Protein 1
Amino acid sequence: MTAPEPPSAPEPPSAPTPGAAPRPATGRAGPGAPYTDPTLGIPVATSWRGEPRNRLVTIGDSLTQGFQSCAAFQTQLSYPAIIAHELGWAEHFRYPSFDGCGGLPLNLEMLLRDIEDHCGPTLDWWDTPSALFRARRFMDKVEDYWERGGGCTPVTNTAINHNLAVFGWDLRDALDKSADVCGKMIDSPSDNLVRQVVDSPGERAALRTLPTRPPASGALSQVGAAAALGEQTGGARHGEATEDGEQEADPDHGIETLIVFLGANNALSSVIELKVVWSEEGYDDLHEKARFTVWRPEHFAAELRQLAHAVGQIRARHVIWCTVPHVTIAPIARGVRGKQEPGSRYFPYYTRPWIGDSAFDVERDPHLTGEQARAIDAAIDQYNDAMAEAVRTARRAGRDWYLLDTAGLLDRLACRRYFEDERARPDWWTPYPLPRELAALDPVPNSRFLLSDGDRRSDGGLFSLDGVHPTTVAYGILAQELIDVMRRAGVEFRTPYGGRPRSEAVRVDFTRLVRRDTLINRPPNNVTSGLHSIGWADEALDVLARALRFGRRRGK
């Protein structure tokens, strides 16, 4: 018997009335439908002078940092870096690097390739001792690098990064955590022979992302660091010459476009841990909040009001807010035993992707129920409504703020929820048109868990091997959506090489991204149709829970 949800657990939004006209200034067709108009139907008169010194700044979490397969690694392929490339501003765009030992905290792709190199493309029962030895050796090397080796060396750059995202962070972290705070939260490292995973990985990532020099900068949070970039107004620009010489910098704004993409971690732990713990008192405390896996909408809204007020003080021309994706679509939690009923979006249970329908045991296997998944989605819908209201209020006050509905984007890409079940499709749903370079791939990338048939990718392609974060080409899709909003805001894009203004439609260079995406081109051969290798790694080493929990400490 399933335990009931708390009394104040959110209810699903009511369905739109058939044939009803769109409500004014909402940007959507009705309750529950995506926000399709980034301006929410509210015009804003704008007038700018010069060009801001910092053309792109981002505040966010792992999705903005470029996290893939349990690691921040190739941050030069994050969606902000992709946008900067298309802006013709890549040479000036600053972001942290996590190249050592495959990234932080644990690169699952590199771990599987290491096991494949030494144990072959298949993992049979007699290979288990050797594979376990290789995995522990790899994890020990990574732990040593980030806790005691080259990865723990302080970064001393004085220039503030433009990509300020830190994996694992939620709204409260963006407001309160700084390099100084994170430095105090890191425990003395110990070479743990059993729990071979980097301690305090999020805090270590923050020390490479947020400013630490001069010493006073160590007190700047994500929002504070962005505000400091916003104060860089007037004067000569940073060496970006045009045919007429140096351009005048914007005297009023230090940032041209600020992207804020936060909130996923206010619900993501529910599918990572397959456990629903609704927020209570202490949700706004840096230590106590680790007890919760889903924020109640009223708690999220309270945090969002503080964040929106702080962002409103930043001197940025345009601010784009990205909504929170429905975390129950991510393939890390796979629906089993068929839909609850014809036309339902939900399965009766959600468990790990390597546990098949016939093997699933409700008494033995970790899982969420369909009702829990529905309640989580309903909470996220209310998060996004609160975010839309913040943008709506700002636009009515004359600020050039926009809303990108990334939740609606993921809903349109969802295979098992809508694409493969016509009866579950709401009236507003249409499949997302993939860029032609991706549509031409065989098989066409989709939202299923990424699989290999031993020689090539056989399924998936939009999510990396952790089942939560996008692949490089999927980050490109997000970059394209944001570019479209930026173009609507009047942002000038220039050629990546040469810096000439681009008058035509700006399209992400997906040919470049496909070439750089190793999971699209050549996934590890041991990611078989049965997901045996990833399932084995998670069950034997607790890889996903340890790496994707981002070092969250449980409150005491």
Note: The chain is about 35% helix and 10% strand.
Protein 2
Amino acid sequence: MTRSLSAVESWGFGLTAHISWTALVPAIHAALGSQAIFVWIPAVIFGMLLNYQVKRLGMHFINVAGGTPNYATKLLQNYPGLARYAAIGYLLNWVSYLSVNTIVLRDLIKVNLEALGITCPDIFLDISFTLLPFIVAFSGTRALSILHLFFVIPAFTLLMTFCVQGLGWLAFSPVSPGFFPSSWSSLSFVDWAKWFFFVTYATYSCETASSFVADSRNPTQTLRFLDVAAWMMPPIFLGGSWVVMRLATNPNLKDNAFLNLAAASLPFWGRFTGVSVSFLLVAACLLGSATVVSNCPRILYQLALDNHISPVFSVVSRRGVFVPALTLTLVLCLIYLIWGDVARIVAVGNIGWFVSFMLLHLGLWLRRDRPEVLFPRISLAILLLEVVVLLVGGFAWGWLNFLIGLLFPISVMGIDAMIRRVNFPAFHPDWWMRRYRKRPVVIIKDSVILQVSILIFLLCSAVGVGWLFGVKLNKVATAGGENIFVVLLMSVAFVGVAIACWTSLPQVVAIASAIASLTQLQQLDLSNNQLTQMPEAIASLTQLQLL
């Protein structure tokens, strides 16, 4: 794997889980009220410890891609079945996250469009928001990482502003309802276990930057960011939850993310509340989806290298695209999307996820004498608690969801076994390697027609959409116009980058590659051990001349 990412780009992926808090807090707040903080506190502590442990593992396995699940396979190398199950359970939860994001975006757009008198089929929105991050991912890693970084910085800054400003307003504003609640509701152990199981969806996933250590140009700096990610958890997960608990007190808000965050931020954001909350929610969904299509292929890639799954998933194109791994990720995402039920998707995905961390803690205890293990006794204590939480909290979400969640990773392992045995060319790495060896000789000089056509289509579509919404907004007095504008703005940014990745950017990359090869050719002396480099350099020179 080529080390192509800067440390800053890998850091951006490490902030995705923090932003996902916006989608989780309304549900637990609606269910537990003020007692929710007693679920967040231990979950955050365990999440911070996990980040430090993953950092230590990453320092030891510096060339391992995919992060935590593949570190778990190293710890469980004497138990390959458990290792494979742990990694696939982790993977499936991230895939489910993309499906959840798609559904949340679809519902958000539908609500705002209906306020403007516009209807849009669910299937169109589902397919569009599912394929959007994949279109960028199939074009290469760098464009996706830069796009992700471009939006994650303002989104994270806005989220931190919400937490800090909200806490400050509660503490110092003369019209504050008070920093502490006047009374505390009761909390049973079953409810605590059920919602602890739920919030680990976010608190256990703040180690995502570790997935990009193997293709980071500065892997040590990437791993050091795990310390920063750990200490960003208390102000967001605890501070932000406290703000929501004290300011979003209307029971009619239920578990609606937009309504709860809007109610909590209205006292200190005023008229900017709607657009700010919309930006946070849309950013959480799109950035989460972008992280999924970046993270999951790397997990599959390393599993294939370690012979845990079919070798075809170790195939990477010249531009660093994990085509077979991305294809499997897309298929799994569509399976989740068919259900169309956020609660079931989260419940099912979280079972395998939680078991994978149980197995990670088991591996840490089994390898407790190794230098890469940081907290062996604490890991054992957390494992014992997790066993109880899984049995109590997992069953609290429904025995059928519990059973499906346990069996789903085994089903994926069965699919992989089939891929290994079926004599279909695309299921074997040799077929892909032969395709990649065929260096493209024809430069996309005829693609000018395609690019001009796309540009005309985009300009006409932009004018048409702008005119349509202008007409609707003149007829309907609603605050939803600015919310839908935020959705459109970020979606168009993703679409624009996707189009560039499939049209202009490949030519830019080809020019850079050709110039590098030309420079190499000019510096080449024709000794016997360098003659083998001539054909490729000459091909690149020809390619540059055609441009």
Note: Residues 441-448, 525-534, 540-547 have pLDDT under 50 and may be disordered.
